[in-house]
Design goal:
The protein contains eleven helices and nine strands. It is an alpha+beta fold and about 300 residues long. A five-stranded antiparallel beta sheet has the order 1-8-3-6-9, covered by helices on one side. A four-stranded antiparallel beta sheet has the order 2-7-4-5, with no helix packed on it.
Length: about 300
């Protein structure tokens, strides 16, 4: 008999391990190309294949060059800028994952930027294999060039088979990165990280009438200690993060749906529309109804 057994799962029964593919692409940037990103529900990694530029997150700016990757966690905001003289060619991959996922932490440790030890031509082929799930042209090229693929040519995933195949190719890419960077999972993935545990809990339950006391109770710690841990890691209190999650979600619902304000209030965890409207106006200096009206004109 031959076989194997996943001891990672055995050690981390209380940590969600799933990673789900969202999107992937390759781009040759124009000189000076820049992009600001706001809170998104998915994680994003950029792999720089050529050129140089800068990446800013949490008030820190990094100089980024070919052979590096930069990581934008879900719920984060920041800015990146390609060099004028030596613009980037980069690929990105977006995916959904619990913020406690050990594979992300293992690859990036406590940084937002890493050096990639996988040869860049091999890395590009792995990324092209993900794109080839929906665009077979990517299977027949060794390197992407904008002249061969002008404009934006995104092809959506529409079948269950493609969904599974794209996810499997993304996971293979991550496994190669971990292997070549000589990264191994921590000996004990059960060590408590109260801040990330709390963030994951808020991400999952912000749409319910959640209190920070509830989060602290779930982690079996005092709420003051939770706030201290959370602020040290995420530079804001868990209450501020919870409110920001609710307000961002409320903005999206106001703009993309015709739901009454009372329904949106309930959908983002408020017990009544008056409480929600008060918080919304405190954040955006306008009522929910007027916010929706101003964006529709």
């Amino acid at each position: 008999m031959i076989g194997n057994r996943d001891l990672i799962i055995h050690r981390t029964l209380d940590i969600p391990l799933s990673i789900q593919f969202n999107h992937c692409g390759i781009q040759e940037c124009i000189p000076g190309y820049h992009y600001g990103f706001t809170m998104r529900p998915y994680h994003l990694i950029h792999f720089v294949l050529e050129g140089s530029g800068t990446f800013q997150i949490n008030d820190t700016t990094y100089d980024i060059h070919a052979g590096q990757a930069f990581y934008i966690p879900a719920g984060s905001s920041g800015y990146y800028h390609s060099s004028v003289e030596n613009p980037w060619k980069y690929s990105w991959i977006g995916f959904f994952a619990d913020s406690r996922n050990p594979f992300i932490k293992t690859l990036f440790q406590d940084s937002f930027v890493i050096n990639i030890k996988t040869p860049l031509n091999e890395l590009e082929q792995l990324l092209l294999s993900v794109i080839a799930v929906t665009d077979q042209r990517a299977d027949s090229i060794s390197s992407y060039r904008k002249v061969d693929f002008p404009g934006e040519q995104f092809v959506p995933i529409t079948t269950e088979m493609q969904c599974l195949e794209a996810n499997s190719k993304m996971l293979h890419l991550f496994s190669v990165l971990l292997k070549n960077n000589n990264q191994t999972l921590p000996s004990s993935c059960k060590e408590q990280n109260y801040a990330s545990e709390a963030k994951a809990y808020i991400d999952a339950y912000y749409c319910e009438p959640l209190l920070i006391q509830d989060v602290a109770n779930a982690l079996h710690i005092h709420p003051n200690y939770l706030s201290s841990c959370f602020k040290k890691v995420y530079h804001q209190t868990p209450k501020a993060y919870l409110n920001s999650m609710r307000m961002e979600r409320a903005c999206m619902l106001l703009l993309q749906t015709d739901y009454p304000v009372s329904v949106i209030a309930s959908a983002v965890g408020f017990s009544n529309a008056f409480q929600f409207s008060g918080m919304f106006k405190k954040y955006f200096h306008v009522s929910p109804a007027n916010f929706r009206k101003s964006k529709q004109t």
